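ok posting inputs for the magnesium ion job
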Amino acid sequence: MSLLTVSDLNVNYGDTRVLWDIAFEIEEGQFVSLVGANGAGKTTFLRTVVGLVPAVSGRIDFDGVDVTTVPVEARIRAGLSMVPEGRRLFKGMTVLNNILIGAYFRKDRQGVLEDEEKVFGYFPELEKLRNRTAGDLSGGEQQMCAIGRALMARPRLLLVDEMSLGLAPVIVERLAEVLARINTEQGMSVILVEQDVEIALELSSRGYVIDNGRIVMTGQSSELLADPKIREAYMGLV
Ligand SMILES: Nc1ncnc2c1ncn2[C@@H]1O[C@H](COP(=O)(O)OP(=O)(O)OP(=O)(O)O)[C@@H](O)[C@H]1O
Ligand SMILES: [Mg+2]
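and the output
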């Protein structure tokens, strides 16, 4: 069953249109990537799905409910949670407090404790740093912290914006491994947005390619990875 269905979505910044007639779908338990160049509209798409940017027209259905005009807080409660571009941690606060902010809207204390354990289970390296100030962490550790924070909302759909940007390959591999585990072990649906097309398509089962605010290609990730047009345009390969 489809968990998120976006249809005919148009989004503007001021008078400038940045997303055109977007159609996008993800099923429960799927791992889908959205790839494209700098400025293509990937972040805007995620921000519109969670309600931080309004749609000009079109429709966003989540779990069978039209959420197009629903406020951000209610969308989080419904099960949408985002790892934002650039992590956006509270740099002066501890790792643990940053992670707990993700549970801000929850009342089930027991569940929150369980999820805290789960997060530190996925990222044991973070548990050792739980009382450290987030601003003192490395980029990779900060990304783990941002993913942990998003998981604390116990989402049904996790939206990750630029997981790999600026991080060393070994760290990216570690983060990728955890995202894959979260998807397979918990059956959590994941949308991964990446400029690094190869990483995203290797992790996901389906992919969308966005160019200049329009979806220009979609299909099985393995097919997209093998497509000469994609290899040339986005991976610098011929
Ligand atoms: N707050 C804003 N106000 C006006 N224009 C914006 C704003 N944010 C982004 N844009 C413009 O909207 C377009 C889409 O930007 P967006 O950030 O969604 O792209 P992106 O695919 O996430 O890019 P990147 O790979 O660099 O993160 C770009 O032309 C960008 O300059
Ligand atoms: Mg972006």
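notes: DSSP finds ten helices and ten strands in the chain. The chain has two domains: 1-79+156-238, 88-154.
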